[in-house]
Design goal:
Shape: globular
CATH architecture of the largest domain: 2-Layer Sandwich
Helix content: 25-40%
Bound molecules: 2-OXO-4-methylpentanoic acid
Number of strands: 18
Low-confidence stretches: none
Largest sheet: 9 strands, mixed
Distance between the termini: 42 Å
Number of helices: 11
Strand content: 25-35%
Mean pLDDT: 97
Order of helices and strands: HHEHEEHEEEHHEEEHHEEEEHEHEEEHE
CATH class of the largest domain: Alpha Beta
Length: about 375
């Protein structure tokens, strides 16, 4: 049986309930809440990450005071000096989470302690001060409670949460900054891909890598996503939805999609995913899927997967399905894999759909939460 990762062990440590944590981020007065008409407009057409709520959580770090000024304040533009360090050297980290409305109206989130542990892993790599996990979870609780009317209930929808930290010191020398801002913003969202659960087409990029050995590929920082954008632009010009990146050391093994991890379902029923080799983000959805599959007796192997073995497996029928996963994308079937010298249709199958159904049923409270992943933010109001 697979050993839990450090992040999984940290995430499993108990944390206080929402009522106990609530109030750490004091809700500030808001004199311009969005109108009922604006709310109805947003909810009538939920896409991904386009519309935002009334509030945002915010705290500041200085060496003298640590994290302080913890508030939930009206959502709005930030004031940042043009010399703000993040604008020059990219010292920032972020997370992706979701709040779900259950059928009884209560609001829940999924594995928040995993995100708390991971943002601190990212912060350590970027020389950013850590955030107490209680403060991290409290910021989610206080923000979502203030923004409760923005948590949608339709199937496939959620309130997407984006915690992030950035260097706000005004200074152009290259060193870790002496001032940081932590924020959480929230966006009522539908499916990440505009075609919902339709299979996505992947371009395998052989020229560019999102991360390399000793780099930052295993933490969540904007730079990794920035490096994925040019390959993505080029791939979309030829009709592809996403890029599959190969490992930078050998340019032969599959790593991840940049914003999503990848799984390969074999015809014998086993499942493979690239091993966490230091260049791959340890996705919370990835971790959950591995645990769900193993709990059903499906053999899951985290291993180095060569692109050639995938191409050969698709040709021979040994590879039965492939899917991508992430908080935003949930579980998304892959329908085509191509590069300069191959173009293969990827079969669709039941494992992808079954794992999507099981994961989302747990998140929505329709299936027993066997792993204790759900965290209650608020009762129905
Ligand atoms: C998420 O899945 O939440 C991410 O942060 C990745 C991004 C593609 C939205």
């Amino acid at each position: 049986m697979r050993q839990p990762t450090d992040l999984e062990n940290l995430a499993a440590q108990p944390i206080a309930g929402a009522d106990e944590l609530a109030g750490a981020f004091a809700v500030q007065p808001h004199d311009a809440l969005k109108s009922a008409d604006e709310h109805a407009r947003v909810f009538s057409n939920l896409s991904f990450g386009v519309d935002f709520t009334d509030y945002m959580a915010h705290a500041t770090w200085t060496a003298e005071r640590g994290w302080h000024n913890k508030v939930v304040e009206p959502y709005g533009p930030l004031t940042l000096d043009p010399a703000g360090a993040v604008l020059h050297y990219g010292q920032e980290t972020f997370e992706g989470m979701k709040a779900y409305r259950h059928d009884d109206g209560s609001i829940w989130t999924f594995r928040p302690t995993y995100n708390a542990a991971r943002i601190n892993m990212s912060n350590r790599r970027l020389a950013i001060p850590e955030i107490a996990r209680e403060d991290f979870v409290a910021s989610i609780v206080d923000l979502v409670r203030a923004d409760a009317r923005w948590v949608p209930s339709e199937p496939g929808t959620s309130l997407y949460l984006r915690p992030f930290v950035f260097a706000s010191e005004s200074f152009l020398g290259v060193r870790a900054a002496s001032r940081y801002e932590y924020l959480v913003i929230a966006s009522p969202s539908g499916a990440y891909f505009k075609n919902g659960l339709q299979p996505i087409d992947l371009w395998v990029d052989r020229q560019y890598h999102r991360a390399g050995p000793g780099g930052m590929g295993d933490v969540k920082t904007g730079g990794n996503y920035a490096s994925s954008l040019l390959p993505k632009v080029r791939a979309s010009q030829t009709g592809f939805d996403e890029v599959l990146f190969l490992d930078a050391a050998t340019n032969t093994n599959i790593d991840e999609l940049g914003g999503m991890n990848i799984f390969v379902v074999m015809a014998d029923g086993s499942v493979k995913t690239p091993v966490l080799n230091g260049n791959i983000l340890p996705g919370g959805t990835r971790s959950s899927i591995i645990q769900l599959l193993e709990s059903h007796g499906t053999p899951v192997s985290e291993e180095t997967i060569s692109l050639q073995s995938v191409i050969d497996g698709l040709a021979s029928g040994e590879v039965a399905e492939m899917f991508a996963c992430g908080t935003a994308a949930v579980v998304t079937p892959i329908g085509r894999l191509a590069s300069d010298d191959f173009d293969i249709e990827v079969p669709l199958g039941d494992v992808t759909h079954a794992i999507y159904d099981e994961l989302t049923a747990i998140q929505l409270g329709h299936l027993e939460d066997r792993f204790g992943w759900l965290y209650k933010i608020a009762d129905a109001s």
